[in-house]
Amino acid sequence: MRVDALPSRVGPQLRGIFFPLYVSFGGEVLGYASVIYIVSGAISSAVVLGLALRSRRRVSGVEGYLNVPIAGLVELTVGRGEYRFEFPEDVVGSFGSSFSGVWTCCRVGSGAQWSVYKCGRGGTYLAVKVPKGLERVIEEYEVGGPPSRTGADVMDFLRGFERRVGDIVESARRVMELEHPHVLKLRAYSTSIPLLVYEYASQGSLQYQLVSGRRFSFKEVVVLAVQLADALRYLHAHGMVHGDVKPGNVLFVNGVAKLGDVAPLAKAFLGTEVAGTRGWRAPEQVNTELYRGAVARGYVNRVDVYQLANVVLYLLTGKTVDGEARLIMDEDRLSTVLREVKHGELEELLKEMLEVEPWRRPAADEVVRRLLQLLR
């Protein structure tokens, strides 16, 4: 569930005014905040109940832990098959060089909705992401082989994306402006086809590292949590909610952890709401009343805080508390799970981050502050 626009019943004028506030107007993350109540059945009606000034600045002392690489990570293994690929002429963006010319690409990952390629030229590597079904655009020319068939079937596939491309372009423009050491950088996008270009994550995802046998020390976990929490603080300050924080969406670029699949781009790319991943979801992602309460109170971004707690818990214990399970879990059972962390202060913080009600969880900047205390 990524919420990055006002409900459709809110008119375009109010939508333009309140769009930056909708996903994170809880006061602690924006330089201004408003609580908006939507009157059922009324068109373009909203009442601003409060306004608070808060700081967007980083938590004091966090700079020493940002952009710090984790040593000993496993390099990502690329798949078989190499393809010659030329970027569309309408690609928008930059990485310090030109996109023109022939690139050599190989597939490095696929999900239910997308495929990712490592594309290189002259020692420079980028990650290219396309939706499932569009792989043939990149795999048209196999190195050492004849062209594959693209033709009418691909054109039919692309026609199904015509409306979605506009949403992707609009969202990509916003995401390209993000600059944080722990947010995966979007380098470019196409204005004609659903194709995104990111910096290349040479060590894959956190999930890839875990599957490869890499284990993380307590200090490494806390430092990683500080970095991700500050990335979330930054996203929330820019009116964005991730909504799917999990090991598969934490990527490593030269040892530095970065959040990938940043909203609202992920939603635009998929063309549908993203409801989180089972095992990592927050309670409001499975309970409508809690979600409505989070929206009304201005705590939609706390879904990320819950999911970050699950990532930390998983790294230290191998367990998570899915939102559906949390709804029926009593406090004694939760305490039993958290005791496996074997660190009283962190257990208490995780307990607060795993609160059922989003408005009872700490904000991302408070999480950063509390985690820093564990490193002193």
Q: Would you mind describing this structure in some detail?
A:
This protein has 376 residues and is of the alpha+beta class. It has 2 domains: 120 residues, Phosphorylase Kinase, domain 1; 170 residues, Transferase(Phosphotransferase), domain 1 (Orthogonal Bundle). Helix content is 35%, strand content 14%. The chain has 13 helices and 12 strands. The strands form 3 sheets. An 8-stranded antiparallel β-sheet has the order 4-9-10-7-6-5-3-8. A two-stranded antiparallel sheet has the order 1-2. It is globular. The two termini are 35 Å apart. The N terminus is likely disordered.
Spell out the blueprint of helices and strands:
Elements: H1 12-22, E1 36-38, E2 46-48, E3 83-85, E4 92-93, E5 103-110, E6 114-121, E7 124-131, H2 135-138, E8 141-142, H3 151-159, H4 162-176, E9 186-189, E10 196-199, H5 206-211, H6 218-237, E11 250-253, E12 256-259, H7 265-270, H8 288-297, H9 302-317, H10 323-326, H11 331-338, H12 344-353, H13 364-374
Antiparallel strand pairs: 1-2, 3-5, 3-8, 4-9, 5-6, 6-7, 7-10, 9-10, 11-12
